[in-house]
Design goal:
535 residues, mainly alpha, 61% helix, globular
Length: 535
């Protein structure tokens, strides 16, 4: 099997040669668009392959979602077996797919799913650009996000993140909107499909809802203009019906399995608590802080800056009477503003939120790029040069091109406590981790015995803490996990004070553990408890 060391020089040179070919092909009309797109996606896959084969955690969110997927394969009822907190159910169900084909749910399978989402997003973006601006401009601007996503090695853009599926759905909705604005196909059918996929976005990530709303409002504008000429309500009704379909199915499903209250309490209300933010006035500074942490995204933005500035000429002579002419530019600008709001709403400085900005940035640049003609080739060259200079610098300094060496990292690692707990567990057992170290679930390949696979919401003080604690204990009593790990300390994310945040901080739970479990020892900072009947 293929592996990558720190300096796969020939492979990297092939990647840069492919990128150069893609840049050349963008302006060479004799190369068919299908061939151009195929090689572009091939470039993305080739340059992301090293991190896909690196079977180690890059971000705590990866382990959190993979643990959910492992659990859903065993008990597929979301909000009973799994609560993804801010992450919607669709993100987690998606990760189950490899297991259905007999593959292990691990970091490699997760990143492969994420890569497919990114590739699909790019293809739908290209299709929308082609409908709105034409194939020539679409090809020129499309290569910029392709180069960015292919050559960046920043963790927040290469690990499986909860933004990748929502961005894919947003790109799909964007493409359907472009079909509506250009009157391609049946307007009612397209409107229904747009509403259907837009209605699914809140169940992938609530953070993506502002952008979905912009696209839906733009679709309603298309329906309104159609009504003025045809007096037909059919497209509008189809759009509404599509938007209600997925939420209604979800409500019926959650009611049938008695988890509707959990959806309300732990997904909707729980997200309200999490997404505090600091108000609209803090958005510029908050976004600037996140933006400044990603040199590659800064380079991507700089490469697009001149086309973005040129795009504002599209709004010259704007008037309400000619609003229809400006629908596409207005939608793009509002989509960009909604993406900035989505990035900053939670109040956390997480770089992976910038995934929401890649498509709006590209769309706005496309408006200006249409005025620059073949001179636009300089922008992808500049972006590729940024990555080339960085790679050359680290190659000379450290003999390193690849940050994700998969030598001896193709198989899952087992932490000391996981190696020990394997002696007392069986394939379909449940385990529980108090604190925040979801990597243990992935290493052990065991389902989580509580809906939340981390317990920070049962530890930190907030209005819903008692509800979280009550559910945590009820899940323990129902699932009877074979082992429990208290990871609070050096191995835990966010919660690291054993004296105030360890399992003793929840007296009822600690009493339950003392009654039914035996403490077997501390393994590299993580305490292991085994159910009495397993000893």
């Amino acid at each position: 099997m293929i592996t990558f060391d720190n300096s796969p020089t020939v492979y990297w040179l092939i990647g840069y040669a492919l990128a150069a070919w893609v840049i050349f092909a963008a302006d060479f009309k004799k190369i068919p668009t299908n061939i151009f797109l195929f090689v572009s996606i091939l470039l993305l896959v080739a340059m992301r392959l090293p991190v896909i084969l690196f079977n180690r955690e890059l971000n705590p969110d990866e382990s959190q979602m993979l643990s959910h997927a492992i659990t859903l394969f065993q008990d597929p009822i979301y909000w009973r077996s799994v609560d993804g907190t801010t992450i919607g159910p669709l993100d987690n169900y998606l990760l189950v797919i490899p297991r259905l084909f007999g593959f292990q749910i691990n970091y490699t399978s997760g990143r492969l799913i994420g890569l497919l989402c990114s590739a699909g997003s790019l293809l739908f973006l290209f299709s929308a650009l082609k409908n709105w601006i034409g194939a020539a401009v679409a090809r020129r601007v499309f290569i910029l996000p392709v180069i960015f996503l292919s050559f960046t090695q920043e963790i927040d853009f290469v690990h499986y993140s909860s933004e990748q599926l929502p961005v894919f759905l947003l790109a799909l909705v964007l493409w359907l909107l472009s079909k509506m604005t250009r009157n391609r196909g049946s307007l009612a059918v397209t409107a229904y499909l747009l509403g259907l996929f837009a209605g699914a976005i809140p169940f992938a990530k609530l953070q993506a809802v502002p952008q979905a709303m912009i696209l839906v409002l733009s679709a309603f504008w298309v329906c309104y203009r159609n009504f003025r000429s045809t007096k037909s309500y059919k497209p509008s009704l189809a759009l509404i019906a599509g938007g209600l379909t997925f939420p209604l199915i979800t409500l019926i499903w959650t009611y049938s399995f008695h988890v509707l209250k959990d959806l309300i309490d732990f997904y909707l209300l729980g997200n309200v608590i999490y997404a505090g933010g600091k108000g609209f006035l803090s958005i510029p500074s908050q976004f600037a802080r996140i933006f400044s942490q990603s040199p590659d995204f800064i380079a991507f933005t700089i490469a697009l800056s001149i086309p973005i500035l040129a795009s504002f000429s599209k709004f010259s002579g704007f008037s309400v009477k000619r609003a229809g002419v400006y629908q596409v530019p207005t939608t793009i600008v509002l989509l960009l503003l909604a993406s900035i709001y989505a990035v900053t709403k939670s109040g956390n400085d997480f770089i992976h939120y910038l995934n929401f900005c890649i498509i709006p940035w590209t769309l706005l640049a496309a408006l200006g790029l249409s005025r620059l003609g073949k001179k636009a080739v300089i922008f992808p060259i500049l972006l590729l040069a940024w990555f080339g200079v960085n790679d050359a610098f680290y190659f000379v300094k450290e003999r390193r091109l690849n940050n994700y060496s998969s030598v001896d990292a193709r198989e899952l690692w087992q932490s000391p406590v996981v190696s020990e707990l394997k002696k007392y567990t069986q394939k379909e057992d449940y385990m529980v981790v108090w604190g925040w170290q979801c990597v243990y679930y992935v290493e052990a390949q065991l389902a989580q015995g509580t809906a939340e696979n981390h317990s920070e919401r049962s530890i930190f003080d907030h209005p819903l803490r008692e509800k979280y604690r009550s559910r945590y204990l009820a899940d323990m009593e129902r699932n009877k996990p074979a082992v429990l790990l208290d990871a609070v300390g050096k191995n835990s994310f966010w919660v690291q004070d054993p004296k105030t945040q360890g399992i003793e901080s929840y007296p009822r739970l600690f009493h339950f553990i003392q009654t039914h479990y035996t403490f077997l020892g501390n393994f590299d900072g993580t305490r292991l408890y085994v159910r009495n009947d397993r000893l």
